[in-house]
Structures are given as C-alpha cells and as structure tokens.
Amino acid sequence: MNRDDPQTDLLAAAMFMVIGAGAIWIALDYPVGTLRRLGPGALPMGLGVLLLASGLGLAMQALLRARLDPQWQGKPLINLPKLPSIHVIRSTVCVVAGLGLFGLLVRPAGLFLATATLVLVSSRAEAGTPILGSLALAVVIPAACVGIFVYGIGLPFRVWP
Amino acid sequence: MELFANLATGFDVALSPSAMLYCLIGVTLGTFIGVLPGIGPLAAIGVLLPITFHAPQTEAIIMLAGIYYGTMYGGSTVAILLNLPGTAASAVVAIDGHQMAKQGRAGPALVMTTLSSFFGGCVAIIVVAGFAPPLAQFALRFQSPEYFSLMIMGLLAAAVLVQGPFLKGIAMVLLGLLIGTVGQETISGLPRFTFDTLYLYDGLSFVVVVIGLFGLAEVLRNLALGADREKVDTRVGWRELIPTKRDMKDSFMPTARGTGIGAFLGILPGAGPAIASFVAYALEKRVSKNRRNFGRGAIEGIAAPEGANNAAAQTSFIPTLSLGIPGDAIMAIMLGALMIHGLTPGPQIIQNNPEFFWGLIASFWIGNLFLLLLNLPFVGLWIKILSIPYSILFPAILSFIAIGIYSLYREPMDIFMVTGIGLVGYLFIKLRCEAAPLLLGLILSPLLEENLRRSMLVSRGDPMIFVERPISLIFLILTVTGVGLVLLGSWRASRTPQTEEGSAK
C-alpha cells in the first residue's frame, strides 16, 4: 500500500485549509475578548488559524516529499480524483436515499414501514441482489427490529402509521 | 484491606442479575459484531451505542464495556482463523495465530488467546483497583492549568499515533475541537457555527458523529469495495482444541510480560491496546527462547500481545474515569456515554459514585469470564457468522443505525445529519485521514475551552501560567518529549527501507 501518497495528502491539506479559512471567516463575527477574558470567538479563531496552518504545513510536506522521491518525478501532483464508478455511485445513492426516506417516514408512517423502506431501498445498493431478495429482507429485518427494539428493549415507538 | 472491601462492593453490584444480564448481552453482541470482517471496535461500539442508552446508568456502562472487549475477542478469533484482522491490535495476533491455524492448531491458538486475555484482564483489574483511587486523589489537586496541559498531552498523543503524516493527525484533532465549539457558547450564549439553524444550537450530538464517522462510513466503504471485498473461506480445520502442557508452559511468561506492558501502556494517554500488542510482540521477539519460530506459528506470539491488549483495554479506563481525560477514541466514546448518563468523570467519581465505579471494575472480570465461557464452546458458531453475505448484513446494520439514532431524541433531523457525517467519514477514509483523533478533540473541546478560559482569568491574561505551575509543566515537558521521540522515530524509519513491516503483512 502506498502509505504516504503526496497526491492524497495534498487533497487532504486542501480540505483542511478550506475548513480552517471558513472557520476564521465565520469566527470574525464573534467577539474575541482579551487575553484575560477570552471571548466566545477566541477558541474558534485560534483553531481556525491552527487548522489553516497545519493544512499549509501538510501541503508543503507533501510537495517536498514528492520532490525528493524519484518515484514522483515529472508526475502531476494535483491529481483530481477520478469520478467514482457507477457501482460506487449506485451504492452510495441507495444508502443515502434509504436513510433519508427513513428520516422522512418514521414520524408519519411508523417504525415498521420506515425500516422496510430503508431496507428495500438500501439493499438495491448491490447490483447482484434479486428484487425478491430485497422484498424478503424488507419484511424480515423490520420485523426483527420491531421485535428487538419495541418488544425486547421496550422502546415506546409507534410501529404503524 | 480497603482494596478488597472496595472490590467487594463492586462485586455486589456486578453480580446483581440485571448487571450480569447487561454484561452478557454486551459481550455477546460485541463478539458477534467483532467477528464481522471490516467492523472494528469503533464501528461496533458506534452501531451498538444507542442501545445502551436505554439501560440504567451503571448497567449501560457495564454493557458498553462488555461490547468493547467482546469486539476485541471477536476480532482476534477472525484474525487467527481467517487472517482477517479487523483492528491494528488483532493484526499482531494474526501473524502467528494464523500460521498456527494453517498447521491445524487453530484450537490451541484460540484457547490460548482466551486464556491469555483472561489472565491479562485479571491482573489489570487489580491495577485499576489499586491505581485509580490514588490517581484520583492526586488529581483532586489539579486546577484548570493542569487540566489544560493534560488535555493538550492527550490530544497530541492521539495525533502523533496515527498512520501517515503527523500534521494530518494534528489537523484532525483541530477539526474535532472546532466541531466541538458548534452550538451555543456556555457563558455568553452566543450561537457559534450554527448557520442560523435551531437544530445546531445544542451542538452536534456526539452519538451522531460517532455513528456517522465510524459506523456508516464503514458501511459505505465496504459497499464501494463491492466485488473487491475479501471473500471468506469459513472452513476451519480442527484437530485438537486443548493446548498441550508445553503450550501452557511456553505461554506463561510471555503472557505475564505482555500483561505488564499492556497494563502500563494502557494508562498512558493515546497508547491503548493496539500499541500495547505491538510492543509486547516486539519485546517477545527479542527475549523469547523460541524467537526463531516467530512468524511461523509460535504460541508466544499470541500469548504476549493478547495479554497486553486486554490488560491495556482495562487500564485505559484509569485516566478516563479518574481524570476524565480519555486516552483514545474508544475511551472518548465511553466518556461521552458517561456524560449522557449524567455521570461526570473525574476525580470525584470514585467518591460520589462508588457503586458505579467499583461495579464497573468488577464487571470487567465477570465480562472476561463470560467471554471465556462464550468463546471456547461456540467458536464454530462465531465463524458461521462470517458466512452471512454482506448483502443481507448491511441493510440490517443500516436499520440498527437508523432506529438506534432515532430512539435517542426522536429527532428525524438526526438521521439526515448522520447520513451527511457518514459521507464525510467516507471522504476521510478516501483521503486517508484517521477519524479517531477527531473524536477525541470533539469530546474534549468544551473542557479545553473552559479550562483555558479559567486559567487565563486566574493568571490575569498571562499564558506563562502553564509553565509556571509544576504539574502543568511536567505534562507539557512529557508532551514535547513524547512527540519529539515519535517524530524522530518516524523520521528515521522513513530513511531506512522497511523490512520488518513488509514481512509482517
């Protein structure tokens, strides 16, 4: 495994710098106070600055390493990650959609239907799963969950709409 | 002896039927999840965390502790039988353990794992019982500058120990601290980083962050791997289960040495079980008579790290409970769970909640005993779990995550939040940023701010207060030395080609 890959480190550094700069930008609105009486803005501001600095340091370190390491000679360092494959997009979308629907449904539709929807949608993440299998899971898993959480632990959930 | 009187109080609590039941549920669930490949203790605790919140306070923590060492046992089992280490700690055990399994000696390897862990656990309990109260006594003298420096030490230790560049670890700690400031500020009531949403006024719930970063991100990663996910061959050859007399004799001293190392390293901030088992293995490799067999199925190579990681897992409760400063991410979760249950970890906890404190310690022992009983006869069953296809497993895990989170506050927004944080966690994995230091920062953020502010008030704005007070100075010196040593070590390692690590994989 390529442990210290400068390209990945540069991307991570960029992320840290963006978040650090964003934190500083927002924290500008908060009173910093004095050294004796630190205001609510002191820590966020300090952390933002440190985060920006570590991101910067990480970027420099990655660049330096790339320059010293013959393996990276002449290769582009800023390498935008490839677009994720269809498979990755599909699985991520299914999981996110499943959880989102659970969040939307759990109040109006009750625990059973919300969990069934979550299972049905998320189980489509794997292309190989037959639709009948998904349907079966969407009955068995919610039933088991209702059994464990409502009857086992005794949580007062509304199970049905 | 006060120690034994205290332990007796503890066993009174831990032997109550409800405590034993929760302990048993905890270790069983922990082992179950620990056996699943790709789900380490952090993810396991993340997924199971909400369940524990519905138990009474002492029982809840006992159960959580049970889940923790249950996952460690489960992890070792899979590491040995299938060479699928789920955690850094079990990666060490896999080196010799899997070799033994290949030679048809999986039985003795597993039994030895269990026995060494049990031994390590038993010794560590005495260490915890003996050390935690005096440490708490000592810590009663700490004031805000001491706490501030201690937290800096813990945070930097966590940052230093991540794989890859040191600055990445630092940045993750800072990010955690920053996320910890989200919400209404305690003194002025000013909302910080809330983006004008009411939802964020109370800050980001730590459970949501844990489950998103560790549980959900792990599911996303496994799904994205798709066909590349490791195929598992669950046929395990057994010849004999019981270790021979020679095995026992060969293992005794390594176990004892490993336990000592583990018990000591567990107390230090940032170290924890993973480091303990690496160090124990490395030491054994030097001192053992049988050192030439290391890597080829030496039973010493299992006994020492197993004793070490279990001892460290338990002694790491010492700083968490008696100082209120967690040493690693798992302890940070424990701390968060304690606070949700209205217990304030810190020097006072032993005096104010003796039943809780000693009950928890006694439950370690009982939990270990359960594991002994659970693991030996049912190893075959645990292995069967591995043959559950992921396509069935992950919808079930997702349902657990969703229902678990919703059960806490009945807040659908939490579900959306955990989904978002899960995606961020997946991004962290892709960028090779370990999320554990972030969690430590998140938990310590409010404490750090409070103690920083108080110190500055006491010193009238003079930051020299942190080096003028002797105990605080000692913490800072230890921090600088420790970080320096680790950086020096990794700098040296990067200049010499890695030989040993390559062969261990």
Q: Helix count of chain A?
A: 4
Q: Give the low-pLDDT segments of chain B.
A: 497-505
Helix-residue proportion of chain B: over 70%
Structural class of chain A: mainly alpha
How many separate domains of chain A?
Answer: 2
Shape of chain A: flat
Which structural class best describes the helix and strand composition of chain B?
Answer: mainly alpha
- Order of SSEs of chain A, N→C? HHHH
| Proportion of residues in extended strands of chain A | under 5%
Listing every helix as H and every strand as E from the N terminus to the C terminus, the arrangement of chain B reads HHHHHHHHEEHHHHHHHHHHHHHH
Oligomer: heterodimer
Quote the distance from N terminus to C terminus of chain B.
48 Å
Chain pair forming the biggest interface? A-B, 74 and 66 residues
The proportion of residues in beta strands of chain B is under 5%
Protein model, in words:
The complex is a heterodimer of chains A (161) and B (505). Chain A is mainly alpha-helical. Chain A folds into two domains: 6-72; 86-152, no CATH class. Chain A is built from four helices and no strands. The longest helix of chain A has 37 residues, at 86-122. Chain A is flat, with a radius of gyration of 24 Å. Chain A starts with 5 loop residues before the first helix and ends in a 9-residue tail after the last helix. In chain B, 59% of the residues are buried. Chain B has one domain. The longest helix of chain B has 34 residues, at 106-139. Chain B contains 22 helices and two strands. Chain B has a two-stranded antiparallel ribbon with strand order 1-2. Chain B is 75% helix and 1% strand. Chain B is mainly α and 505 residues long. Chain B has helices spanning 2-14, 17-35, 41-52, 57-82, 88-102, 106-139, 144-160, 166-180, 206-225, 245-267, 272-287, 300-315, 317-322, 329-340, 348-352, 354-385, 390-409, 412-430, 436-458, 465-468, 470-495, 500-504; strands at residues 183-184, 191-192. Classes of the chains: A mainly alpha (161), B mainly alpha (505). Chains A and B meet through helix 1, helix 2, helix 3 and helix 4 of A and helix 8, helix 9, helix 17, helix 18 and helix 19 of B.
